Amino acid sequence: MANQNNLLMITGNDDTLLNHNTNTPTIPDVKRADFPEDFVFGAATSAYQVEGAWNVAGKGLSNWDVFTQCDPGKIADGSNGCTAINQYNFFKDDVALLKKLGLQSYRFSIAWTRILPGGRLASGLCKAGIKYYNDLIDSLLAEGIEPCATLFHWDVPDCLELEYQGFLSRRIVQDFCEFVEVCFWEFGDRVKRWITLNEPWSFTLQGFTLGLFPPSRGATAIHFGNALKNFPRHRTKPGPRPISTAGNPGTEPYIVAHNLILAHAHAVDIYRKRYQTVQGGQIGMTNVSTWCEPLTDTEVDKEAASRAIDFMLGWFVAPIVTGDYPESMRENVGERLPEFTEEEEKLVKGSYDFLGINYYTAHYASNLPPPPGQPHNYQTDQRVKFSTERNGMPIGPPADSDWLLIVPWGIYKLVTYVKNTYEDPIIYITENGVCEKNDKTLSVPKSLYDETRIRYHNDHLSYLKKAMDKGVRVKGYYIWSLFDNYEWSEGYTVRFGIFFIDFVNGSLTRFPKRSAIWWMNFLAQKPVIPLKKQAKATDQNGQGSVKRLRSN
């Protein structure tokens, strides 16, 4: 089995750098000069998480607008992204921050309902929305920053959910194509890197298996509590949840994924046939994956680890590379896994110029036979148990989202696996980052100390460089995230940004954390600030002054 063989090539300690013990010696500091001159360093956000302005200037309602306001109990702190960090009004200041840091690219998403409020072209264009993105793109280019635009980051027009259940229907493909073609037409003369879908696995599983994202379908009792150990958790908190009786978790995730893949392929086809030659851009898809390490050296656990990656990454990458789903999915899901027609296979296969990879963490994986009589669902199909410890030793130290353990060597193994399994593609790391708790008892100055984040980025870059030295074709790296923002079902309870956002008094002022200063020095090829020598930030209430890079 090809995927398993490629997994076996990179499991185990192939040298001293790949030490899975959390007491690994300090990884060497990286320098900008360690990476090629044309290597792209950028930062990422998404529309719902940062823009705000949810109902201004003709914007239509998205699924997240409705979900968070009508069902706030699904969000950890009952919050929503109606204001978020108000980038809609502060984007010029934010572009100036990107410039000050020295970042070369900004990855943002285009809100479908800010362009087509009614979800499709026949319902009319929103000129104000088009102007907003034109202004953002022009501001970026004026500062020498490359725009990287994501076309779908989980915000479906609510009207299409009401009309035909969104991505549960094949009808979504045509409407998505109308949206993306408007974007290519309006922005493609300046946007040279397009991402069709962001983390379709997260959208599919959270919305149609766990029921934690809109449209909140598929959740049953087995998916909660200890059963989450049978799920590669990503942006998911443990604990009791409201249980939805809507949907069928044995079939709907596969239908939704199939429609997402077809929407992607048709969008790429439109771009290649009508725009790419003239506009000269590239287009791809971004997928998330944990690295899955076999819990033991047994064949069944090695197969389980391979299968886990198939069911997360391969589910969406294998079709666009090979034209079909992974063999392990065909075998375990059977006739519930949709088939591509001959024409669709031709359309889907090769529908990428690059692969975007979001990496955050790693797990151990072991074989888990399905319990007798259990209804079919993603977990029973996958047949994998996930754990964060081996022989009492954690795979990595925890961050403040308990799904995220810090495992830098996982990024090396993941991109090496992608190279070996999927025809040596061009890769961009489109998200990589770590969070801290949003501790409202801390003063702003104390909140700016994020040494863990500095070490996280340094160590992941070090392993990424190692992979590149061995021939993996990684061309760029995007920080998640530029700003603290709205983190989906976790609301504002955690902070991923290298800029602190003051949510408490409503000013939304941006303050650079120590990691932002680290990045500024790194990109300027200045010596990295040693953690123990970092200057103390102080506030403006008799304790000194905190540097504010934007004032209101």
TrEMBL record:
In terms of PROSITE patterns, this protein maps to: GLYCOSYL_HYDROL_F1_1, GLYCOSYL_HYDROL_F1_2
> Out of the domains of life, which is the source?
Eukaryota
Provide the active-site residues from the annotation.
431
What are the boundaries of the signal sequence? Answer: none
UniProt GO molecular function: beta-glucosidase activity
Keyword Ubl conjugation present in the record's keywords: the answer is: no
Q: Which key words tag this protein in UniProt?
A: Glycosidase, Hydrolase
Please state which protein family the record places this protein in: Belongs to the glycosyl hydrolase 1 family.
Mind telling me which PANTHER family this protein's record contains? GLYCOSYL HYDROLASE (PTHR10353), MYROSINASE 3-RELATED (PTHR10353:SF137)
Protein known as = Beta-glucosidase 17
Native organism? Abeliophyllum distichum
At the highest ranks, the source species' classification is: Eukaryota, Viridiplantae, Streptophyta, Embryophyta, Tracheophyta
